[in-house]
Design the sequence.
């Protein structure tokens, strides 16, 4: 059977022990899928697996807000990020909520018939562009942790999936058929409609420390989950030297969220700065990471654990940009990634 993974070969879930096994067990109960490839791909770097799952669980599954509305938000983010795997997954999950008509409208590229869902979808799509989807939000204030946590979780998951997982949600792209989407959704409906207790994922996390939760999620389980993922993902910066870290930071500071052009290639040259190239691709266009990009960066000491951490670092650098744009006014320069040092960097 062909592997669903690209560039990496994660450990088989049946070999999991300790915290990784606990995460899989909780996924099976609360998500309805025992070993989703979206999370199995992170198991080469266990420090990332638990917080990525916790952020999704505590926002999408157990957080405040209607599950259907949050699935619409996750669909919108996945569409904006050009992640077909995740678009298909959320179409199936919308079937699981019981809203079959909404799922099929989105599958056909149509807007939701319900005005509230249409506003959520539009807002979620715009979150890719930093600073364009801040308040007022299209949902009540008390639901902010659920909705913001969901879109930020999927800005991260979309990028990891696009970089390291193939596009096929089901064998032979079977999810393209409406009866298959509906049947797959019905098989998950019990788990999706079950009420999940908030906070159950937090014992899986290392303590991120006091004051580390973002203000919009303070006092909810979404806060420590987000903080834990931020800590785990940003540790991947250590795989780059200080010059490459600066290049990634300054390039993203000038990025407007648009999908970079194919030509001329705006990313750093893989022959001279392969690590910075991979991190920036993961942030801005992870679907463009190629075997050649990974091979140019690989060294004997670069295991799959390192690759997953580097991709996660780039992915979360983009998440951080989105989060700042959602939670506070941020002045931005409209620019695309250039892969070249800025004047600030060379001064």
Sequence:
């Amino acid at each position: 059977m062909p592997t669903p993974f690209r560039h990496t070969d994660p450990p088989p879930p049946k070999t999991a022990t300790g915290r990784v096994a606990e995460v899989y067990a909780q996924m099976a109960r609360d998500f309805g899928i025992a070993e989703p490839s979206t999370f199995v791909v992170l198991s080469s770097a266990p420090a990332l697996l638990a917080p990525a799952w916790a952020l999704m669980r505590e926002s999408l599954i157990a957080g405040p807000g209607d599950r259907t509305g949050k699935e619409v938000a996750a669909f919108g983010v996945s569409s904006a990020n050009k992640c077909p795997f995740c678009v298909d997954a959320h179409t199936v999950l919308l079937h699981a909520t019981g809203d079959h008509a909404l799922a099929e409208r989105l599958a056909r590229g149509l807007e939701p018939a319900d005005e509230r869902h249409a506003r959520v979808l539009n807002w979620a799509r715009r979150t890719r562009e930093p600073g364009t989807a801040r308040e007022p939000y299209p949902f009540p204030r008390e639901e902010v942790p659920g909705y913001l946590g969901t879109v930020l979780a999927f800005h991260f998951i979309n990028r990891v999936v696009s970089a390291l997982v193939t596009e096929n949600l089901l064998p032979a792209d079977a999810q393209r058929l409406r009866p298959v989407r509906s049947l797959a959704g019905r098989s998950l409906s019990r788990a999706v409609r079950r009420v999940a207790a908030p906070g159950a994922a937090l014992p899986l996390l290392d303590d991120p420390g006091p004051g580390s939760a973002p203000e919009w999620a303070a006092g909810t389980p979404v806060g420590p989950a987000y903080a834990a993922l931020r800590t785990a993902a940003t540790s991947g910066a250590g795989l780059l030297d200080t010059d490459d870290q600066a290049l990634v930071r300054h390039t993203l500071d000038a990025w407007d969220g648009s999908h970079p052009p194919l030509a001329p290639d705006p990313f750093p040259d893989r022959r001279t700065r392969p690590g910075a190239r991979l991190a920036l691709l993961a942030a801005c266009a992870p679907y463009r990471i190629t075997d050649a990009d990974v091979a140019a960066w690989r060294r004997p000491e670069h295991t799959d654990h390192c690759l997953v951490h580097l991709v996660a670092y780039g992915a979360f650098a983009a998440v951080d940009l989105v989060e700042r744009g959602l939670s506070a006014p941020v002045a931005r320069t409209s620019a695309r990634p250039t892969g070249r040092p800025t004047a600030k960097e060379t001064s």
Q: What stands out?
A: The two ends are 53 Å apart (CA to CA). The longest helix spans residues 304-327. The CA atoms of residues 141 and 216 lie 10 Å apart.
